[in-house]
Every structure is written in C-alpha cells, then in structure tokens.
Amino acid sequence: MTCKNCGKEFQEGAFCPYCGSAQFTAVRQNNDAPSGGYAVLCFFIPIVGLILYLVWKDEYPLRAKSCGKGALIAVIVYAVLAVIYVILLFVIIAIAAAASGSATMGLSTLLLL
Ligand SMILES: [Zn+2]
After folding, report:
1. Fewer Cβ atoms within 10 Å of its own Cβ: the N or the C terminal residue of the chain?
2. How many helices and strands (H and E) does the chain possess?
C-alpha cells in the first residue's frame, strides 16, 4: 500500500514505517465491501441484520448497508405476507360462514374487507 502522508510504498500496516502517520482509513476501506451473503442472511433473520447494521454502521458502512438492506426487504416482504394472510383468513371465514347457512354473518364479514 501507499502512505497517505508521504506517498512511500510499504507492506500492509496501520502506521507508515517511514513517517509514522496513521493509515486507519486505508485499512478499513480494504476490509469493507457490500456483501450479498450477509444481505441474504439478514433477509432470512432480520433481527440479526438490525444488530449487524448497528454494530458495523460506523466501522464497515458498506457491509452494514448490505445487512440493513436485506433486513429492510425482509420486513417489507413479511408485512405484505401478513396482510395477504389476514385477507385470506377473512375470506375463508366469510365463505365458511356463508356455507354453514349464516348468510348475514358471511356478508358482514365480507363487508369488513
Ligand atoms: Zn509515510
């Protein structure tokens, strides 16, 4: 790597051996990258995504963003699925009520939709 201060080449390290200036940003950027694997993991376990996002958002912003994105998409998908599930439940109740002969109950349940 190249020193940010004096421009001399040296092996990977937190400090330049020639002028002693700190190279923290360069080391951090080398380790940070968007991660599809973490995004998928956080999609399936959103709570892990939230925790990883909070832990990494300062030190590894790109990786944290992948986790946050995965968790966010998961929350949206789960919310949509929950709404569909509730609607289906109402429809099933309405059909069951109508089939059992209680037409007024079936109708009122349908109107709730
Ligand atoms: Zn230097």
Report:
1. C
2. 5, 0
User: Distance from the CA of 29 to the center of ligand 1, in angstroms?
Assistant: 18
Amino acid present at 49: G
Distance CA 86, CA 113 (A): 10
Residue pair 4/23 in contact by the 8 Å Cβ criterion:
yes
57-92 per-position pLDDT tens digit: 998 999 999 999 999 999 999 999 999 999 999 999
Residue 26: the pLDDT is: 47
Q: Alpha-carbon Rg of the chain, whole angstroms?
A: 27
Looking up tokens 């990258």, which residue turns up? 33
- Domains of the chain, residue spans: 1-31, 32-112
Distance 25 CA to ligand 1 centre (A): 14
Residue 19 identity (one-letter amino acid): C
Q: What is the rounded distance in angstroms from the CA atom of residue 59 to the CA atom of residue 22?
A: 16
- State both tokens at 43: 């999609």
Beta bridge partners of 22: 15
